[in-house]
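Chapter review. Work through the record for VAV2 factor before attempting the end-of-chapter questions.
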Amino acid sequence: PNHRVVWPSAVVFDLAQALRDGVLLCQLLHNLSPGSIDLKDINFRPQMSQFLCLKNIRTFLKVCHDKFGLRNSDLFDPFDLFDVRDFGKVISAVSRLSFHSIAQTKGIRPFPSEETTENDDDVYRSLEELADEHDLGEDIYDCVPCEDEGDDIYEDIIRVEVQQPMKMGMTEDDKRNCCLLEIQETEAKYYKTLEDIEKNYMNPLRLVLTPQDMEAIFINLEDLIKVHFSFLRAIDVSMMSGGSSLAKVFLEFKERLLIYGKYCSHMEYAQNTLNHLLANREDVRQKVEECTLKVQDGKFKLQDLLVVPMQRVLKYHLLLKELLSHSSDRPEKQQLKEALEAMQDLAMYINEVKRDKETLKKISEFQSSIENLQVKLEEFGRPKIDGELKVRSIVNHTKQDRYLFLFDKVVIVCKRKGYNYELKEIIELLFHKMTDDPMNNKDIKKWSYGFYLIHLQGKQGFQFFCKTEEMKRKWMEQFEMAMSNIKPEKANANHHNFQMYTFEKTTNCKACRMFLRGTFYQGYLCPKCGAGAHKECLEIIPPCKIGSSADQDSLSAGPGPKMVAVQNYHGNPAPPGKPVLTFQIGDVIELLRGDPDSPWWEGRLLQTKKSGYFPSSSVKPCPVDARPPNSRPPSREIDYTAYPWFAGNMERQQTDNLLKSHVSGTYLIRERPAEAERFAISIKFNEEVKHIKVVEKDNWIHITEAKKFESLLELVEYYQSHSLKESFKQLDTTLKYPYKSRERSTSRTFTRSP
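Structure tokens for VAV2 factor:
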């Protein structure tokens, strides 16, 4: 009712803005016919994501066609709404819904009425331009279910008759006692509610529901009951001695209450599962109605009761805040402050876990829509923004339509293919800086608002073009935020080397002692000393305990030097008390830490991304020339003989005979001195040997114009972890096994002693 669309001053563009993300349209179908649309398919907070908005709109269109019988000709293209290209068609589709028999049985007045004579074209003509000027912002989400959902129900269920501490004439002690009593009595009422759910719903419903459905609906409610049995007893014991130790009870239970993270983050799915079962199974509906009559005379539905635990755990800090305000002269005041901070921290942790659950769902949807993607997107951090831009590589100079997904660590560049996307490029932000391109902004044409992503070591850069100045501002803002997350300004404060990190166990910040919140990339880890921290706390962390020399810091900051293995290392001898990194001759290792005088170095194997320790004598620096492209020698002048994939001068027929006996994925690079292109990649794929020419042009080297490299070594490293399918659709394999390594391992197999 408070939405600006129903304000007297509202205009048609306000309605267009409110509908553009598809959320309200999906909720409309759910309200017309509960169960017609699976609420799990709706993204309720698709901020900054064109992908998720369009997915919501397509979900609406599919249900209109499949469940409500609207013809495709009665509907609209998703971009007619998202870009507001033809809002008249959108209104026409909603109008047809208003005449549907389902809407009529609900007493909805159909529109337009016969007396409507306004010219639609005049009304809708300027909307697309307005949509360009007013990008989808976060202010349209005031119609989405919010954190306070269920508050009224909670108050009804947990209400206790406690004398209010604000009455005139009460002493501070009286007020404090009222607060203590409220905490104790509401906790008892809450525990009784949990028991009611278990006794009157969970136990009877086990007769008609599968264990999977039971877990989906009730989550970890049995664990909550066990914790609150102990929690209530501890509160009661504290109250027997006047409540002075109540703060200690909250501090002691903080860790045990972390299980609410799971309960609250699965709440939406639980409600959706329950609603789906009630709409589709008569036996479940009857059993739930029968159970409802046994709880408080049927006053509350199961859906209402399931929300209560989430409301209760988010109330603890409010109850303690009130208690603290009436305990100013009490000896336990400091401990109460700590308990209040602990419960505030718990509430923030739970909310962050809920948000991360939603975020991982979004990432999963991105993942399933991008073809050729060989990596898990969640490894790249949180998504920041996605949408259509025009991209020009500084090498290629051609402006191309591309769809970008920006994460904390990378930007994924794709080409749109219907409703899916084909991966073209993964750009690591760690190695780039962003600069504005103010010159283009003077051009008033669309798609002329640009900015650059420049490689820090002078490699291939990119120029991005946005449709409007507002769109450019938003993208640059999100790029800045992502780069600030992956390269925080204070990452190396006090000799640390903090990196964004996913903590498997719940961890406290080394500085403020509060939780690192959420389920992935919760904060920053210094791999040298093991300290974890919030981004905002990096500057105040105590100095790193391990090695603060300038040499170590300079080595740890950013990507380390590349080394090539000159001998096999399988973990013998083992580094004392350290994880082992095994490799074979020719493998390339990024050095993470290594004192020139130490027999053990730490590194990361580029092909597998595994890290660990190895003998410093088993590697040597990679023979890669670091001069800029125009002053580097051509690839043919670099000596590649040390690499296990380099075969030297070899004819095609000889290569076929050599690779035929090897497993799929075995490859070599051979020289072709008589040909214009000096190198070729030969790879066994399934039962055939394929040959790919390597082109050298303008001091760059490539097998496809879309992806260029400075050297043959860089090209090989890239395709060791990226499928050749990016360039050749029928060749879905990486460069897996250098042929010399395969031959050595085969010969070892046959010569090993019995």
